[in-house]
Amino acid sequence: MGKLNVFTNLRRIIPIFDHSVSSWALEARLLRWLTFIWLFVGLIMLFSASYPVADARQHDGLYYFKRQIIWVLVSLVIFNIIVNLPLRKILGISHWFLILFLLLIFVTLIPGLGKKAFDAARWIAIGPIPIQPSELIKPFLVLQSARLFGQWERVSWRIRLTWLGIFGLVLLGILAQPNLSTTALCGMTIWLIALAAGLPYKYLGGTAFGGVLLAVLSISIKEYQRKRVMSFLNPWADATGDGYQLVQSLLAVGSGETWGSGFGFSQQKLFYLPIQDTDFIFAVFAEEFGFIGGVVLLVLLAIFATLALVVALRAKTPVNRLVAIGVMILMVGQSLLHIGVATGSLPTTGLPLPMFSYGGNSMIASLVSAGLLIRVARESNEAEVVPLRSPNPDNQRQRRRFFQRNNTK
Fold it and tell me: What is the pTM of this model?
């Protein structure tokens, strides 16, 4: 009996062996399949975008793809644990993870401990494993924001101010790395969750003004951020300098035309477009799959957002509802910001495209977020779901007796 329980528990943490899916609510099953489709397309795209760079740098075209597969397998195990774990238990420990990653964010600022990438200290190396706490903290910011704002009227001002202070430290820590794009994304996510919770506009207006002021101050102080904004307004004015990334991205998107050049046939990824496997992977996608491919991806995001809103509307508690809304903002919002950067609609930033861009930390954060949304969907409709067949013969006998009694009457 003990071995059977162990085997059952192991099956529940591996997605392809989780047979409980057939009893899930419709929204949960649809979100699960949509997540897997998103992940599959992202892996295919990463294979194409990263091959030339991996071949040149590592002498193995599959180097980044193979590492990403390992991260995907780890992330899927975490994903399946989350979808099978009651949300109240996850919420009960979320604050510890938030505080841990907050501490790690400040560790990245210590010279010698934080690893730099593009003049920003965003990483900590634990052996061969790079940790990016600003990515990993995102789903826990959603959880803790939902937990605070969903119970806003029932908690004291001491608790409110404590957590608002912690949120402020998170944003300041990420901004100090410096990482303005992630700071803006996290700040907007917290603010929109508070808006959805119905907080008074005087609080929301004040924090929005403070956030905009902080962003303007950062751009004023950091010369490279100011240059990015100026080059975004007219990238062709300095096409070989500050506007180079955006110009090459626009050339890739434009080259795709209607149907694209075909999978694997992007020209811009051949060392013209910088960081094409992370920050500009959508440009490679648009070049290879064209306008039609871009529209299909946007439709996928729209379906994901619609399902998330349906789940939020059907959620049984305010906290669950805000978790669903927060995940939608995080996943869809970050995707749209990435696409906006690649198409020149927004200033150049370093946001990855969820489940497309190379990086284990981003993959874990994305699948944890998707798992949280599916868990909310399961809890919203579990009472309404009736399995097509019952594995328990006693239940079948009881049902048969019930119908027999009714028929004799």
Answer: 0.89
